[in-house]
Every structure is written in C-alpha cells, then in structure tokens.
Design goal:
Elements lengths: L1 H12 L15 H16 L3 E4 L5 E5 L8 E7 L12 H17 L6 E7 L12 H6 L18 H7 L17 E9 L4 H5 L3 E4 L1 E2 L1 E10 L16 H18 L4 E10 L9 E10 L2 H22 L2 E6 L6 E2 L2 H13 L14 H5 L5 E6 L15 H21 L16 H9 L4
Parallel strand pairs: 3-4, 3-5, 5-13
Antiparallel strand pairs: 1-2, 2-4, 6-13, 7-12, 8-10, 8-11, 9-10
Helix pairs in contact: 1-3, 1-11, 2-3, 3-11, 7-8, 9-11, 9-12
C-alpha cells in the first residue's frame, strides 16, 4: 500500500498551475483536476464520495447505523504556492489506503469512517486559512465571500466558477456528536523523528503561538560625526535583543523563539539607525512555558533598551491556549506504535491545521511520519516508503479500533473511552497490525 500512496502523491504533484513548482490554489481548475483523481481513488477503496456545500470532498464508508457517527481522517488537496507534494495530500491518501485495508479485511464497522479533503487549509489565495473546516464547525462568516485574491476575483466568484453556491457553506456545518473522532497524519517538518529513529511520532498537542512586536527608538545621526560611545543606535540594540531571544530559546527546551522580521529606519548609508521594529514568534504546546518565555523576553528587551538609552514599545498578539489532543486517542496511537514494533516518540505539531477547528466539535488525534532531513512541508520533502508503511499500520490500527471498539464521547467532544476489542488485544500481545 505504501507504493500506491507514493505513486498517487507523484501523480497529484503533476497537477499544478506551473511546471516549475507545485501550486494548486483553492477553487482553481487544478484543484478540480486533483479532486477528480482523489474521488476516483476513494471509490476504488470502497468509499462513497461527494462534495459538501462548502466544497469539501468527503469519502464515506458507512457503519452499522446509516448516517451515524463517523471516525474522520482529514487533509487537503489544494495547496499554497510552491508547496511540498506531501503537504495535506499525505493525510488524505493514507486515509484512503487505511480504509481500503479495512475493507479488504472484511471487518464489520460499528461506526462509519470518512476521509475528508478540506478546502483551503493554507491561507493561500484568499488569506483565509482552513476555510473548509471553518464551515464544518460553524465558523464560516458570509463576509468572507467578498474577500478577493491578487487578481481581484472574490471568494464568491471563485466558488461560483467551481460550481458551488456561495450561500451554501453554512449547510456544511456539523454538530458535536456527528464526529466520533477526528484524526490527521502528516509529514514531520523537523528532525525529532530522525533523531529518535522512530518512523511515526504521536502529537499530544498543537503548539500555541504568540507574537511580540518590538520597536526600539534611538537617535538618527551622522555616522562620521558622532563617536560610537555617544550613539543611541537602535540597530545595535536590536542585535542585543536578538541574542537575548536566542539565549532564552536555547534555555527553554519546550519553547521555540524566532525573530521573524525586521524593519529598519532610516535606510540611507552613513546614518546611525534611529528606529527598528522586529517581531518575535514564541511557540509551544506548553501554555505556561510559552507565557513565561514571553515575559522573560519582554524583560530582557527592556533591559537592553535601558542600558543603551533607547525608547521601547512592546505589543503582544493574542495568545490562545494550545489545542490539546484527546488523551485517550494519544494513548491509542502510542499503543499502535508499540504494537508495530517501534519506539514511542511524542512531539508537538508546530502549525495550526484543520484539527484546530475540528477540536471544537470532536476529540482529535494526530500523528507525524518521519520525513528525510525534516523538511516535510517544503518542496524538497521526501518520505520513505517504509515510513509510510509504518504510518499506515498505526493509522489502520487506530481507525479500526475507534470504529469498532470505542464508545462515543459522552458530551460530543471531551472524552474517548479507549477499549481494545479482542482482535486489537491479540495484535498488541503478538506483534504489529497485519
């Protein structure tokens, strides 16, 4: 099955607006062409396929109760500009392959299983990230329809050209209880799995992030007329702040600190810099650790400003809590990794995904598959067939157990009672999933 997944990824990579990079913008002819391929693969696997009113492509394997709860595996087919071939599509294609395995085994399903290709995971064309899952969770705002792309085409016009009713996304909404569990699988964009020598990592939470916007103001003077010791140089102060940001990031193992942008004034040569504005991104799945690092950064920057006689302004973005995966599903994924003969590795998902929205209506679970050199989200990303095979073993195991052995969450999204059926227990006792 891993070869089939890779062959399909390569086939989809040929569907692009440009021959020199992979670009399939949302509601474009390229997205339609790619979805036609995916729809065909869904039907080959035994799924009934359709589009919902928001344009999401849904393949469903019915359960014991028609129209009942479903275990949902999500991804996307459209891309941002110059995308990696595994981004989004890996989750969709591995979901299809896992369902095909389940169908071939002939196991009865207590609950339905769905594979969903959401529209517009990346901000991309209209600057609206995760548009499809917004609609599914009831967060679609009709004012978004008037947002236009770089060519003046509005979202409303793009949806109409794609054969969709712009007034339809509200009808795509699903309520808590419709989805038993929401799962994602993606390529890791980092080195943790290579370092741990494990092909599959389990995600306990999607990292939360916040931004500091820092402005240092000094005195713009001629470089030849003011001795270095007498200057109030905003750029030199910024250099100190950057080193402080690096120090704090290195000292806090579970927090990533990144200086992301710098605007310098004035620009002319032979003038000492009078003002610098820079951004600092602070990311972690540990909310308390992220907020402590943010406070430490602000104090360090203020100390730099005081020492150098600079004025400083610090603006803070909204700092939402990290999105937690359901502990029962995390545990089930870990059991599946162990059953397939690999060490369990936990790691954070550093990017917001559709799971961030789906967590509003269902318990979620995520796994990442090892990517060569840790560049799974870039154009150069490569996932080895053996690692895809290991990911399929884990995903099939978890889908099968949730669809057959787990009770639905009592309140539509806060709990999963993970109970292994007899078949799953035998697999754990005697080796990996077949």
């Amino acid at each position: 099955m891993a070869k089939t997944v890779i062959d399909r990824i390569e086939r989809l990579a040929q569907v692009s607006a440009y021959p020199w990079n992979l670009t399939r913008r949302v509601f474009s002819p390229q997205q339609a062409e790619a979805e036609a391929l995916v729809l065909g693969w869904m039907e080959e696997a035994g799924l009934s396929a359709r589009h919902d009113p928001a344009g999401n492509l849904i393949g469903r394997l019915e359960g014991a109760v028609p129209g009942g709860q479903a275990v949902v595996i999500g991804g996307h087919v459209d891309t941002a500009s110059d995308a990696g071939r595994y981004v989004g599509t890996l989750g969709v294609l591995m979901g299809i392959a896992a369902v095909e395995r389940i169908v071939r085994r002939g196991s009865p399903q207590g609950h339905a299983v769905e594979v969903v290709a959401f529209v517009a995971d990346a901000a991309g064309r209209f600057g609206i990230p995760r548009l499809g899952s917004r609609a599914v969770t009831g967060w679609f705002d009709e004012h978004m329809l008037d947002i236009d792309d770089d060519y003046g085409v509005t979202l409303r016009q793009a949806m109409e050209a794609h054969g969709l009713d712009p007034e339809g996304p509200a009808a795509a909404r699903r309520v808590a209880g419709d989805v038993l569990a929401y799962l994602e699988v993606a390529a890791e964009a980092g080195p943790v799995l290579e370092q741990s020598e494990s092909p599959v990592g389990v995600v306990p939470a999607l990292s939360g992030s916040m931004m500091l916007r820092v402005t240092l103001r000094g005195h713009a003077v001629g470089s030849a007329t003011v001795p270095t010791r007498n200057r109030r140089d905003a750029l030199a102060g910024t250099a100190d702040c950057i080193l402080e940001a690096e120090r704090i990031g290195l000292e806090r193992e579970d927090v990533a600190v990144t200086v992301v942008r710098m605007d310098v004034e004035p620009v002319p040569t032979f003038v000492v810099t009078g003002s610098v504005t820079f951004g600092v991104l602070v990311e972690s799945s540990d909310d308390a650790g992220r907020r402590a690092a943010t406070a430490e950064l602000a104090a360090a920057f203020e100390g730099v400003a005081a020492r150098r006689g600079l004025e400083i302004d610090i603006e803070r973005s909204v700092d939402p809590d990290a999105t937690r995966c359901e502990p029962g599903i995390v545990h089930l994924f870990e059991r599946a990794v162990e059953a397939s003969g690999h060490p369990v590795t936990r790691l954070a998902q550093g990017m917001a995904t559709d799971a961030s929205n789906m967590a509003l209506i269902a318990p979620i679970g995520l796994v990442l598959v090892r990517c060569r050199d840790g560049v799974g989200w870039g154009p150069a990303g490569t996932v080895d067939p053996a690692d895809i095979e290991a990911g399929l073993d884990v995903l099939t195991f978890v889908i099968g157990d949730l669809a057959n052995g787990s009770d639905p969450p009592a309140d539509g999204g806060s709990r999963v009672d993970v109970r292994l059926d007899a078949s799953a227990a035998r697999k754990l006792a005697g080796g990996g999933p077949s």
